[in-house]
Amino acid sequence: MTGERSLPGAVPAEDEAPPILQIDGLTKRFAGGALALDNVSLQIRPGEIFALLGPNGAGKTTLIGAVCGLVRPTSGRIQAFGQDARRHWRAMRGRIGLVPQELGFDIFDTVWRQVRYSRGLFGRSPAADLLEEVLRSLSLWDKRDAQIRTLSGGMKRRVLIAKALAHEPDILFLDEPTAGVDVELRRDMWRQIAGLKARGVTIILTTHYLEEAEEMADRIGIMHRGRLLLVDDKRSMMKRLGRTEARFTLIRPLGAVPEPLADLPVELVDGGRVLLYRGGDGAGRGREHVAVLAQRLAEMGERFTAIEQRESSLEDIFMQFVDAEGTRAC
Asked: Of 11, 239, 284, 318, which residue is least crowded by CB atoms under 10 Å?
């Protein structure tokens, strides 16, 4: 990835593997007229973790449903493993796993029977050894004979993942995989998902937890109102769109920004008592500017009592795009 804005659906570079999943111009308009997907194009690379971010109603679940054959698109094309989804949907679906948002079980069934049944749905042989490996990897082996109704919410979420992995998919969709679980369990599940990637599974997840995307994802896509606003490598995105903010608390208030500081993106706030810097490029330039500001203030004899400095997070970048989209819609 370069520092330039990535165009969804762009042709991969010569040294990149062909996409494992390619979506071109996907649109979904429901019977009532609501536009859930608006000309979405996206390529997913083999073996990556791709995080799809967006507020409720952005179209994330509809996009997943279209790929998994649960939603029929109005227009557009989906290819997976080099095959057209409409013509080869059965073979394609057998290589895709889905962990939905909603917990759906026979609550009186056992963990083992639920997972074994999910494997059988795809015509796979029982493979007890493989199912044991899946359950052990998710810390569910000791619960294999427990009824679903006796499990905690976090354990039920793990059972959903086990069911999705039972038929050995090459692509795994995780729709809000850690919704409703506590922080400790969430981090444990992050480790489980990283382990799946290490085994070669391509993972596409939706999440409301920006910390989750920042922790795990290789690339990130931002959706809003059915449109894919941005797709980029996580590090490139942070480097290109990240910013530094620093607040210098001055001993004496200033009436205007001094001339020696006019070439930097600074302003006076709090009645001239705070010099506020916002700038940089997410690659250290902002921190360099802050050091220059401190030096120039000292040379001018302007003393300050504190510096508060922070780097922008993925949440800041996400809100920047969503706010900008909301402004354009007004």
From this structure: 11
